[in-house]
Design a protein that fits this description.
Elements (H helix, E strand, L loop, with lengths): L9 H27 L21 H11 L3 H5 L6 H34 L7 H24 L10 H26 L9 H26 L30 H4 L1 H27 L5 H26 L4 H24 L5
Helix pairs in contact: 1-4, 1-6, 1-11, 4-5, 5-6, 6-7, 6-11, 7-9, 7-11, 9-10, 10-11
C-alpha cells in the first residue's frame, strides 16, 4: 500500500512510471530475442519517423531486401536467403524498434498531461526531462551499435552491444527508483548503514553480472563450453589468456568471457545468502523482509535458468527467460535497497 505521506497525485504518477518500466523490461527482452534470432542487422537505416511503417508493397519489400543484400551479414552468412525468410528477421527487428518508439509515446503523452494539470512536483520535473533525454540517447546508441555490424564484420561490436544493454538497464533503474520514491517515502524505522551499503553492493554486483552477460551475448560465448560445473572438464578453461594485449581477453575471448560470467554468478551465490543472513538479524519492516526473502528465492530461479540455458546450448526461449530473470533479480535488489533508505 502507498504510504500516507505520499500526496494524492503521487500514486498515478508512480503507476505511469512503473508502466514505462514494464515497457522497457519488454524492450530489453525483445532486444535479446532480436540478437538470438540474428535479426538485428536486417534494417540498415535509422529513420525514427518514417521507419515506423514497414514495407507495404512487393516493390518496397524488394528494395528493402536489396539494401540488406549489401551488408556483410548477407554476403558472408545469409547469401541466397529468400524474401520470406528475410521478412521473418525483418519483423523481429522492426518490432523491437517499434516498441522503442512506443515507449517514447507512453512516456511523453502522460508527462505532458501531468505537467499541464500541474500534478507534478517541481523537484520531479527535471528528473522526468532527464528520463526522456536518456531515452532518446538510448535510441541513438542502438543505431550506433547496429552500424558496427554493417561495415566489415557481420555482427555488432560486443562493446557497443553491452553499452546498449547497460544503458537500458540504467534508465530502467532510474525510472524504477523514482517510482518507488513516490510510492514509498522513507521508512520511520532506521536501518543500519552497513546493511544499506551491503544492499548497494548486491545491486551493483547484479548489474555487473548483466554487463558480463552482454559480452557473453556479443561474443556468442554461450555456444561454447556447454558443460557444468566445469568448462569442458576444467575449472579454468584452456586458452583463457591467449589473446594480446591481455586485457582484450576480458571482453573478446570466448573462454574468458564465459568464465567471468560464471565467476560473478558464483559470487552472487555467496553474497546474496550472506546479505539475507545479515538482514534477518536486523529489525526491518515486513515489506523489506519480504523483499529480501524474494531476492534469495529468485537467485535460485536465475541460476537454474542460466545453467539450463547453457546446457541446452542457448535455445531462444530459455535464453530470453534468463535475460528477463536477470532484470527481475536486479529489480528486486533495487526494491530492497530502496526500502533500506535512512530515516528522513
Amino acid at each position: 500500500m502507498m504510504s500516507a505521506a505520499s500526496t494524492s497525485h503521487d500514486k498515478p504518477i508512480a503507476i505511469w512510471l512503473l508502466t514505462c518500466c514494464a515497457f522497457i523490461f519488454a524492450m530489453v527482452v525483445l532486444g535479446g530475442v532480436t540478437r538470438l534470432t540474428h535479426s538485428g542487422l536486417s534494417i540498415v537505416e535509422w529513420d525514427p519517423i518514417v521507419g515506423a511503417i514497414p514495407p507495404l508493397t512487393q516493390t518496397q519489400w524488394e528494395e528493402t531486401f536489396d539494401q540488406y543484400k549489401q551488408t556483410p551479414e548477407y554476403r558472408d552468412i545469409n547469401a541466397g536467403m529468400s524474401l520470406p525468410a528475410f521478412k521473418g528477421i525483418f519483423y523481429v527487428e522492426w518490432a523491437h524498434r517499434l516498441l522503442g518508439r512506443l515507449i517514447g509515446v507512453v512516456f511523453l503523452l502522460p508527462f505532458l498531461y501531468f505537467l499541464v494539470r500541474r500534478q507534478l512536483k517541481r523537484a520531479l520535473v527535471p528528473k522526468l526531462v532527464t528520463m526522456f533525454v536518456l531515452g532518446g540517447l538510448q535510441g541513438a546508441l542502438g543505431w550506433y551499435m547496429v552500424k558496427s555490424g554493417l561495415i566489415d564484420i557481420p555482427r555488432v561490436s560486443p562493446y557497443r552491444l553491452t553499452a546498449h544493454l547497460g544503458f537500458a538497464v540504467l534508465i530502467y533503474a532510474y525510472i524504477f527508483w523514482t517510482a518507488l520514491g513516490l510510492l514509498y517515502p522513507r521508512e520511520s524505522l532506521p536501518t543500519p548503514r552497513e546493511l544499506r551499503r551491503f544492499g548497494t553492493a548486491v545491486a551493483a554486483l547484479i548489474f555487473l553480472m548483466m554487463l558480463s552477460g552482454g559480452f557473453v551475448a556479443g561474443n556468442k560465448a554461450g555456444l561454447a563450453f556447454n558443460t557444468f560445473p566445469l568448462m569442458n572438464g576444467r575449472f579454468f578453461p584452456a586458452g583463457m589468456y591467449a589473446m594480446q594485449p591481455w586485457w582484450t581477453n576480458l571482453f573478446e575471448n570466448i573462454a574468458t568471457v564465459q568464465f567471468n560470467h560464471r565467476l560473478i554468478a558464483y559470487l552472487l551465490c555467496l553474497v546474496i545468502p550472506a546479505f539475507w543472513l545479515t538482514a534477518m538479524r536486523s529489525a526491518l519492516p515486513a515489506r523489506t523482509r519480504r523483499g529480501v526473502h524474494l531476492l534469495l528465492g529468485w537467485l535460485a530461479v536465475q541460476v537454474t535458468l542460466g545453467i539450463t540455458t547453457l546446457l541446452f546450448v542457448v535455445p531462444v526461449p530459455l535464453a530470453a527467460a534468463h535475460q528477463a530473470g536477470a532484470l527481475v533479480l536486479f529489480s528486486i535488489a533495487l526494491f530492497v535497497r530502496h526500502a533500506l533508505r535512512a530515516r528522513a
